[in-house]
Each structure stands twice: as structure tokens, then as C-alpha cells.
Write a structure and sequence with these properties.
This protein is α+β, with helices and mostly antiparallel strands. The chain has eight helices and five strands; from the N terminus they run βαββααααααββα. It has a three-stranded mixed sheet, with helices on one face. Strands 4-5 form a two-stranded antiparallel ribbon.
Length: 220
């Protein structure tokens, strides 16, 4: 792992301390550092902490990685998965832009070229320092029984819609929900996620179940 710039560290700190220490240090992308892996012991349990840059992959890539780790721990053979680099040609073949959108992009590019500024590695490190000097991540470890969640969901509402409806009820000022969608065509590690916006405001005059069904229909 040394040649790739990625590291594996064994430490006695709690996993939260390790993460807080790691997030203060920018990934040395210019040296190929994309992942940091930590192994620690807490409450008589070994904890594997993987801190990765978003360039490694999207949320579904995390599930693929977890599946491979569990498979390996059960001494089962792993199947090689190639990494797909999603470039412009890949997207252009699958998403045709309208004439208006193309004209807008052309205008933006022309405007940018008049005042072009190329960002350097020094800029990257300076932005990281500025952000993380003022911010620390807050993480709570919460577990849910999937079966229990399914039982709570009214008929016709998925677990995702149930959770989002609950969040909308708690935050009545929210009127738009951003949802990630997969455009994945393989099972490899990569960034193949897009997103859609669902406009829905929780209606306090309706029952929770009715709000859930309405949101579900909007998101389909």
C-alpha cells in the first residue's frame, strides 16, 4: 500500500478520535492517497475504520466494499471488479442535452474563459485547512432492525419513503427532497450516481400515512 500512497494504521484511539484526527489532514491526492485504513480496539471489539476520498466511489461502492470485506472474512474467494472511469464520452452517450442546455453551457464556458483561473494543489490544501479548522464531523452510531422498519411502514410505502416522510414532518419548512439514483452498469467501485429533486411539502392536515403515499407517488 505504500507505493499507492494509501496507508494502514493500527492505533489504540477510539474510532471517533481516529476519524477526527484523519479528517483534519487532507488526502495527498497528488501522491495517490485515496484511502486510509485504521484498526483499533474498543470495548473488547476490533474496529476497522476506512476513511476514503469521494473519488474512490459513491454510496453503492461502499456497499460493494463491505460485501467484499465480509466475503473475505468468511474465507470465500473474491471476484475481481474493474473500476469504471466515468468520463465525458460515457455520459454523452447516455444523456442527451437539450438545445437550451447546450447553449447555456456554452455561455458559461465562454464567460469562464474570460476570467479563467486554474486551481493548484496549494489551493486544494488551503481550502481543506480553512474548512476543517471551523468544522468537526458529528457521527452517531445508530442501528435499526430492517424487519422492524418494514413492519412500521404503512402499506404502499417503502422504508426510504417512510424515513423521508418522517423527516419532512419534523422539518415542515422543507419543500424539496434530493434523492440519489444509480446509473450503474457494473458492480465495480466508481462514481455512477446521479440525483433527482422531489417537490413535496408535508401536509399537517393529512394523516402521516397519506403523506407517505403522496410522497411515494411523487418520487416514482
Amino acid at each position: 500500500m505504500g507505493s499507492s500512497g494509501c496507508g494502514f494504521i493500527i492505533d489504540n484511539c477510539s474510532w471517533k478520535e481516529l476519524l477526527h484526527q484523519s479528517e483534519k489532514r487532507p488526502f495527498a491526492l497528488n501522491k495517490g492517497e485515496l484511502v486510509r485504513t485504521f484498526l483499533t480496539k474498543e470495548n473488547e471489539q476490533l474496529i476497522l475504520l476506512i476513511h476514503a476520498h469521494h473519488l474512490v466511489g459513491d454510496g453503492q461502492s461502499v456497499l460493494i466494499l463491505i460485501n467484499d470485506i465480509v466475503t473475505s472474512m468468511n474465507k470465500q474467494p473474491l471476484v475481481y471488479k474493474s473500476m469504471l472511469s466515468v468520463e465525458r464520452n460515457f455520459l454523452e452517450k447516455r444523456a442527451k442535452l437539450g438545445k437550451g442546455t447546450k447553449l447555456y453551457i456554452k455561455w458559461i464556458n465562454q464567460k469562464w474563459q474570460k476570467n479563467a483561473r486554474a486551481f493548484t494543489w496549494d489551493d486544494y490544501f488551503a481550502i481543506h485547512r480553512k474548512y476543517w479548522n471551523e468544522y468537526t464531523s458529528e457521527i452517531d452510531w445508530i442501528t435499526h432492525d430492517i424487519k422492524e422498519l418494514k413492519e412500521k411502514c404503512p402499506k404502499g410505502i417503502t422504508i426510504n419513503s417512510y424515513i423521508i416522510t418522517e423527516l419532512l414532518r419534523e422539518h415542515p419548512e422543507c419543500e424539496v427532497v434530493g434523492i440519489s439514483i444509480s446509473i450503474r452498469e457494473d458492480k465495480g467501485m466508481s462514481n455512477q450516481t446521479s440525483g433527482i429533486a422531489v417537490k413535496y411539502k408535508y401536509n399537517s392536515k393529512r394523516a402521516f400515512e397519506e403523506n407517505g403515499v403522496c410522497y411515494e407517488r411523487k418520487s416514482i
